[in-house]
Structure formats: structure tokens, C-alpha cells
């Protein structure tokens, strides 16, 4: 860090600008209340505007009259200054979320506001375990076998000690240390996702600028954009995010995490010190944050699709214009053109499709019915099947999803079918898929597949259906 770089940070860095902002106390206090204490990632403008209005009113009741503008004016100003990100998602109403710079500022202020209790022992243990993991995973096969044997001997010795009655639980201080460390890690993990999403948005912005300014051919431009995208996914950050998302989407991992959270909430030492729901909501928040990163990447793909369609349309127009120019040139020089001169040659046999080669139109034959009396007949076919049609009630399926999400934050489609057995076959499965696709809060992971078992209740036969991994969220 030299003087020039420090000066550039001081002038241009959004985090430092926030720390010098005119409304710094209001900014920090309100952002921490709205996003951190409420464990929210984003707000609609009406929600955040109402919350800010109530907060400013509460300050005025305390005698603080420094903020006379309306809540929406403050929100728009903060978005223009880069402290909030303002964008449109599905509705016409804008959505607000914290920018990466604001996340960094809040993170730094939390570190500055040190806790009365700082767990040094748990941090040292974590540091030691990380070094052990690095050494163990980078060692050779024989060294790794030796390490695993040593770990097995330690486990066997511990089991033997427990059987002999020598079992000691960790102290409440150690439990509190570890929980504070887990809580801090969860907060930092959610904050880091802002920067990952920002990187994908920057790639999307660069792609749009490249499309507007570039004069390259369609294939060359797409190749350039895909190289940038591959580079982003192949960086350490991109590889880490892909591994994180695959791990998070694992049904086994989600079940294990829910079991761990249930056990954590039953420990008296943790119940005594627990003030926030950051750890309890970590899975839901991580899925939402990861899904926003994936949607940023989907926006890039959508932009490329629009570019290809526009390019094809412009090329078609260019071809029509070229044909019109050729026709006008022929008419302009029709007196000087040699009719016998060869202007174009084709390889192979040319088979023209002429209009006059098509057959003439034949009117359809009208059927004439005799004027005779019509008698009632008896049907020989079985018509009962016409009255056995069934109807898939989407509202009933949606109620099934809601009833299971009352006590859980998420549930997979496969687990939902274990509680509510499908009675109408594949059509009912497609109904659940329609709900997951139309409602934005649910997750459809098309990169991972799972097999669902469907039983025909009348015949007793079972069928397997391959579907994407679908997770319904509260």
C-alpha cells in the first residue's frame, strides 16, 4: 500500500465515502436495523420506505430533527451514491438491497464495536484445524495413511476412555466461544455473497457494453463473452462458489444442517446468550443469496440470447437490402447487360421449385345426405372412459406445500411426495413443478437430477420419473 493507492482509496472507495457520509449515523443505524437485525437480504421500496419513515419519526420523538426529507428521497439518494442497490426484479416496484461497499462498512464497524466476550481459544483451535487440513490434504498417499491411522488410534482411545466412565463435557465458556465464532462466520459468509454477485453483475455490464460498441461478427463476439464467463467461473472465487452451491443443494447436507440447528437450540448455554436468528436462518439466507448469484448469471445468458436474435434480424434485413440493390442495378443497366453472358454458375444438378409445377386446386367433395328418417342407434364402444377424466387441483397442491413449510423453512419435492402420495400420476408431479417454476421463491436446480417413484393405485405398478431437484421455500 503506497501513497498513491491510499489516496485513490480515499477519493474513490465507496466504503470510505460511506464512513464520511453526511447522514452517517442514520445510514449505519437504519441499515443495521433493517437488514442485519431483521435478517433480510432485500426489501421492496414500499416496505423499506415505510420502515425508514417510522425510524425517522422515532428519532424526531427523541428530539432529533436533523432529517427533514421524505423517506423515499433518502432511499433514492443513497442508491445514487452507491450505498444501496436499486433494481427491478419481477414486479414494477423497485427492490433495494445493501451494496458490497455498505456490507464492508457494516462488517468493519461490527469489528470495531468489540464484544465484551472474545473467544481466543476457539479461534486458535479453528486456526490449528485449518493448518492441519491444509497439510493433510496436500501430503502424499503414505503420509495420509499414517495420519488416518493416528486419528483412528486417537478415536479408539477416546472410545475406551468413555467406556471406562471418563467422559467430560466442554465448559459453558467453550460452548459460548464456539457459538459466537459460528455466528460471526455466518454473518461474514452472507456479506461475502454481495461481492460475488457484484462480480457477475460487472461481467453482465461489460457484456452489454461490448455488444453495443463491438463491430465483431456474431461468432467472434460470443466467443469473447464466453471466454470472459469461463474465466470468471474458473477463478478461485468461481470454483469455490460452484462447490459451495453443489454442497448446499445436497439433500443430505440440508437434513444434517436442520438436525444440527435443532440440537444447538436445545443447549442451555447457547439459549442463554442467543440474541439473533442469524444461525437459525443461515440455510434460507444462503439459498436466497446463492440464487441471486445464479440469477445474475442467468441475466447474462438472457442478454446474449437477445443479442443473437437481434443480430439474426439485422442480418436478414441486410440480405433483403442487398437483393433490392442488385435488382435496382439490373434495372439501371438493363440496356448494357449482355443477355448471353454467364453471371452465375452452380455446382451439381439444379432443381428449381416452380410455382406452376404445383397441382391445381381441387375443391372438396360435398357429401350429400339422403332425405331419410334418422333412427336412434346403439353404441358398441365403451364410453365410460370419457367420464373418468380427472382434474389436478393446483390450489390443493399449493396447500400441501404450505402445510409442510409451516414448521420447516424448506422441503424437497421427493420428501413432499412421501407425505402426500400422488394419486393422479405424472400430471400431479407436473403440477408441483409448475408451482415451483411460477413462484420465484422456490428453487429448481436443473443441474442435478433425482428419481421419483410413482405408483399406479389401480394396477399396483410403480414407475420412476427423472426430474430436476426441486426445493420449496417458505
TrEMBL record:
<keyword id="KW-0175">Coiled coil</keyword>
<dbReference type="InterPro" id="IPR021804">
    <property type="entry name" value="DUF3375"/>
</dbReference>
<protein>
    <recommendedName>
        <fullName>DUF3375 domain-containing protein</fullName>
    </recommendedName>
</protein>
<dbReference type="Pfam" id="PF11855">
    <property type="entry name" value="DUF3375"/>
</dbReference>
<feature type="coiled-coil region">
    <location>
        <begin position="145"/>
        <end position="206"/>
    </location>
</feature>
Amino acid at each position: 500500500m503506497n501513497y498513491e493507492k491510499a489516496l485513490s482509496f480515499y477519493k474513490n472507495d465507496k466504503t470510505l465515502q460511506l464512513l464520511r457520509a453526511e447522514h452517517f449515523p442514520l445510514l449505519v443505524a437504519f441499515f443495521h436495523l433493517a437488514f442485519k437485525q431483521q435478517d433480510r437480504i432485500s426489501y421492496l421500496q414500499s416496505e423499506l420506505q415505510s420502515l425508514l419513515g417510522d425510524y425517522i419519526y422515532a428519532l424526531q420523538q427523541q428530539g432529533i430533527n436533523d432529517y427533514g426529507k421524505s423517506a423515499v428521497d433518502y432511499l433514492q439518494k443513497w442508491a445514487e451514491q452507491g450505498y444501496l442497490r436499486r433494481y427491478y426484479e419481477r414486479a414494477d416496484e423497485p427492490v433495494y438491497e445493501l451494496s458490497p461497499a455498505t456490507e464492508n462498512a457494516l462488517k468493519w464497524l461490527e469489528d470495531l464495536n468489540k464484544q465484551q466476550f472474545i473467544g481466543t481459544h476457539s479461534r486458535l483451535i479453528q486456526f490449528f484445524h485449518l493448518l492441519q487440513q491444509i497439510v493433510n490434504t496436500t501430503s502424499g498417499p503414505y503420509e495420509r495413511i499414517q495420519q488416518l491411522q493416528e486419528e483412528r488410534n486417537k478415536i479408539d482411545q477416546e472410545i475406551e476412555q468413555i467406556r471406562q466412565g471418563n467422559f467430560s463435557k466442554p465448559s459453558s465458556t467453550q460452548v459460548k466461544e464456539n457459538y459466537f465464532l459460528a455466528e460471526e462466520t455466518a454473518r461474514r459468509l452472507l456479506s461475502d455473497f454481495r461481492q460475488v454477485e457484484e462480480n457477475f453483475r460487472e461481467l453482465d455490464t461489460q457484456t452489454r457494453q461490448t455488444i453495443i460498441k463491438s463491430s465483431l461478427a456474431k461468432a467472434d463476439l460470443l466467443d469473447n463473452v464466453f471466454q470472459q464467463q469461463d474465466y470468471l467461473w474458473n477463478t478461485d472465487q468461481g470454483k469455490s462458489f460452484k462447490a459451495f452451491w453443489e454442497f448446499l443443494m445436497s439433500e443430505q447436507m440440508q437434513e444434517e444442517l436442520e438436525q444440527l440447528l435443532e440440537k444447538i437450540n436445545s443447549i442451555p448455554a447457547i439459549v442463554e446468550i442467543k440474541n439473533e436468528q442469524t444461525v437459525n436462518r443461515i440455510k434460507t439466507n444462503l439459498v436466497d443469496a446463492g440464487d441471486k448469484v445464479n440469477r445474475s448469471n442467468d441475466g447474462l445468458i438472457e442478454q446474449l440470447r437477445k443479442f443473437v436474435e437481434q443480430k439474426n434480424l439485422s442480418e436478414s434485413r441486410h440480405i433483403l437490402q442487398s437483393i433490392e440493390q442488385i435488382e435496382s442495378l439490373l434495372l439501371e443497366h438493363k440496356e448494357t447487360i449482355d443477355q448471353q453472358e454467364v453471371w452465375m454458375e452452380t455446382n451439381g444438378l439444379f432443381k428449381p421449385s416452380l410455382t406452376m409445377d404445383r397441382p391445381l386446386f381441387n375443391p372438396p367433395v360435398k357429401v350429400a345426405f339422403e332425405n331419410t328418417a334418422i333412427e336412434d342407434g346403439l353404441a358398441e364402444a365403451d364410453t365410460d372412459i370419457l367420464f373418468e377424466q380427472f382434474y389436478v387441483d393446483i390450489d390443493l397442491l399449493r396447500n400441501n406445500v404450505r402445510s409442510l413449510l409451516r414448521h420447516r423453512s424448506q422441503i424437497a419435492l421427493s420428501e413432499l411426495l412421501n407425505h402426500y402420495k400422488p394419486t393422479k400420476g405424472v400430471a400431479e408431479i407436473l403440477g408441483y413443478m409448475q408451482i415451483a417454476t411460477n413462484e420465484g421463491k422456490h428453487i429448481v436446480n436443473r443441474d442435478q437430477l433425482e428419481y421419483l417413484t410413482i405408483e399406479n393405485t389401480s394396477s399396483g405398478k410403480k414407475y420412476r420419473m427423472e426430474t430436476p431437484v426441486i426445493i420449496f421455500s417458505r
